[in-house]
Amino acid sequence: MMHQSKFKTFLALCGVLIIAAGFASLGMWQWDRAQLSRQTIKVDTTLVSLESIAQPRIALPSAATLRHVRVEGTYETTFLAPNQEDARGVRGDWEVGLLHTKSGGAILIARGIAPMPSLISGTGNISVNGILMPHQSDNYAPKKQGVLARLDSALILNQTALDLYDGYIIAQSETRGGVEIAGARIDPPKPRTAVPGFYWQHISYVVIWWLMGAIVVFLPFYNRLVRSRVQPESHADEQPKETRA
């Protein structure tokens, strides 16, 4: 019986240590995320051709997001993207053009704040330098003719026979024949932190997980303390009964 009792105690101790270690590791994980939340994603700002990092009809690689790209072509048509928000949180209507690239594909270009100078007519290719963005998932406006509810090439699949690129480009400059096109450009988004959330939010989770681990470790000692106090009282209650008997 004594060996069996010691074995049960050993198993209980192992269980407590495993659970406490689990809470401690979760706390360390949140601590690491807290440190990462203060670090911004490092983005390569080297200007590269769009075709070198992305292809039409293929999902945009995560490594291509926020890259500075250059592409040439001609605008096929333009759209209005209402209620869009720039890096400063300012909302406005953006003019978006569908650029038919020299390589044969097509990509949406967020040219600037509407209205922008029309570039559909005229001769010569247009050179666009900008930041490559992933497609949007949320709608910012009702679906109408000539209006993009969100910046997503999937919305115009039935409006063109061209092979479309995933994502879109926020234009920082447009030139034709060496002449730069004027217009109110969009303030592009800044690189985000390596992990979502705020620093103190992650720190609060660290405190919670470590507190849970401390409670798990303390509970067996608390139970033993309660039993040690209850047992003398029970013996004291039994003693008078034995005397009267």
Q: Can you walk through the features of this model?
A:
This protein has 245 residues and is of the alpha+beta class. It has two domains: 23-39 and 193-215; 48-180, Nucleic acid-binding proteins (OB fold (Dihydrolipoamide Acetyltransferase, E2P)), CATH 2.40.50. The protein has two helices and seven strands; from the N terminus they run αβββββββα. It has helices at 2-36, 199-244, and strands at residues 48-49, 68-85, 91-101, 105-113, 126-133, 163-176, 179-180. Strands 2-3-4-6-5 form a five-stranded mixed beta barrel. α1 (2-36) packs antiparallel against α2 (199-244). The protein is elongated. The two termini are 32 Å apart. The model has no long low-confidence stretch (mean pLDDT 85).
Concise structural overview:
This protein has 245 residues and is of the alpha+beta class. The chain has helices spanning 2-36, 199-244, and strands at 48-49, 68-85, 91-101, 105-113, 126-133, 163-176, 179-180. The chain has two domains: 23-39 and 193-215; 48-180, Beta Barrel (OB fold (Dihydrolipoamide Acetyltransferase, E2P)).
